[in-house]
């Protein structure tokens, strides 16, 4: 056998061995496209620790924030499709497709959906001075006084902003947007009465509601929040079914990741999400574990891309 034939045989054997390498057999990176301490960061770290223990390999969390999550997301889109670089992220990935004129990735074509992770529910709250006790009262007042109420958000294009614009479009009301540079200042002015209305994560709003500084009109979009089971969801309170304002989180891999790897990841993550201590940890952050199939996450990605694109265009929202 000549040298060329030997080289081809060696390459073939090496490729075969690599293809048969059990997954995972080396360090897995979870690229979080937001800062430490955010909901998706806590979710990634909770999952990463349990998966690493089970796999007996390292699971490293890398925070790559910037450009509304686009920097870290692009990293994963361009990574090798081998299952060792993954993207735990929020629906921001599809919202950004609607917000930005151009992106260095396509949320559908450049990723393989792996598994839905969790849902973070938003509460619709008002300052007590507004003297509004229900969603129907809010809608009635806003229709009778267009432009008189104002609402806060942590910035243009944030989930809080988009949730309110969806609510406005479904109810036909007109209230004025007051964007802030972050949640803290927005909540401070809401509690102080400088603004009247806001969508807030349920676990953020609850302490203010319990202290009497805010009034919660609804909690959860399509379904009630487990944290506030006696508060109606936005769909219940408004009588509008298609008004899901919740924030969802999912796990993605680069496009063309092998099906066997996706199946393994899906099964393992679903198992971890069902653990009571994991659910408890996420619950303290206002997150409800969901789990599910890769196909379900793929459909959600496509449907939410269409839904939020329509909201962004109708409201003419521009990113900060």
Description:
With 320 residues, this protein is an alpha/beta fold. It has 12 helices and 11 strands. It has helices at 3-19, 39-55, 70-77, 92-99, 135-144, 159-171, 183-192, 202-210, 234-238, 259-273, 276-283, 294-315; strands at 28-32, 59-63, 85-90, 111-120, 122-126, 150-153, 176-179, 197-201, 215-219, 247-254, 287-289. The longest helix has 22 residues, at 294-315.
Concise structural overview:
With 320 residues, the chain is α/β, with parallel strands linked by helices. The protein is 44% helix and 19% strand. It is built from 12 helices and 11 strands.
The number of helices is 12
Helix-strand category: alpha/beta
Mean pLDDT: 92
Q: Ends: how far apart?
A: 65 Å
Bin the strand percentage: 15-25%
SSE pattern, N- to C-terminal: HEHEHEHEEHEHEHEHEHEHHEH
Q: Biggest sheet, strands in spatial order?
A: 2-1-3-10-4-11
Number of strands: 11
Could you tell me the radius of gyration in angstroms?
22 Å
Give the overall form. Answer: globular
- Runs in which pLDDT lies below 50 for 5 or more consecutive residues are 6-10, 12-18
Q: Could you give a short account of the major beta sheet?
A: 6 strands, mixed
Helical percentage: 40-55%
């Amino acid at each position: 056998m000549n040298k060329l034939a030997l080289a081809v045989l060696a390459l073939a054997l090496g490729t075969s061995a690599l293809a048969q390498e059990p997954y995972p057999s080396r360090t897995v990176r979870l690229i979080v496209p937001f800062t430490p301490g955010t909901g998706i960061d806590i979710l990634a770290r909770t999952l990463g620790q349990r998966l690493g223990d089970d796999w007996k390999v390292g699971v490293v969390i890398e925070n790559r924030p910037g450009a509304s999550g686009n920097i870290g997301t692009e990293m994963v889109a361009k990574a090798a499709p081998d299952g060792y670089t993954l993207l735990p992220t929020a629906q921001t990935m599809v919202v950004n497709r609607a917000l930005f004129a151009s992106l260095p990735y396509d949320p559908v074509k450049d990723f393989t959906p792996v598994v839905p992770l969790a849902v973070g529910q938003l509460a619709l709250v008002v300052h007590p001075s507004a003297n509004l006790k229900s969603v129907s009262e809010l809608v009635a007042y806003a229709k009778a006084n267009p432009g008189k109420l104002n609402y806060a958000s942590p910035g243009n294009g944030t989930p809080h902003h988009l949730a309110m614009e969806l609510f406005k479009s479904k109810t036909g009301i007109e209230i004025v947007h007051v964007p802030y540079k972050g949640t803290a200042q927005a909540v401070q002015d809401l509690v102080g009465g400088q603004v009247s209305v806001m969508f807030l994560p349920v676990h953020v709003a609850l302490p203010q509601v319990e202290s009497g500084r805010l009034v919660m009109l609804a909690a959860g979009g399509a379904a009630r929040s487990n944290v506030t089971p006696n508060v109606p969801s936005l769909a219940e309170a408004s009588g509008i079914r298609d008004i899901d304002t919740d924030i969802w989180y999912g796990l993605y891999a680069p496009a063309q990741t092998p099906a066997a790897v996706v199946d393994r990841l899906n099964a393992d993550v679903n198992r971890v999400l069902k653990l009571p201590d994991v659910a408890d940890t996420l619950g303290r952050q206002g997150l409800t574990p969901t789990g599910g199939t890769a196909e379900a996450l793929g459909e959600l990605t496509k449907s939410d891309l269409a839904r939020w694109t329509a909201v962004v265009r109708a409201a003419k929202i521009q990113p900060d």
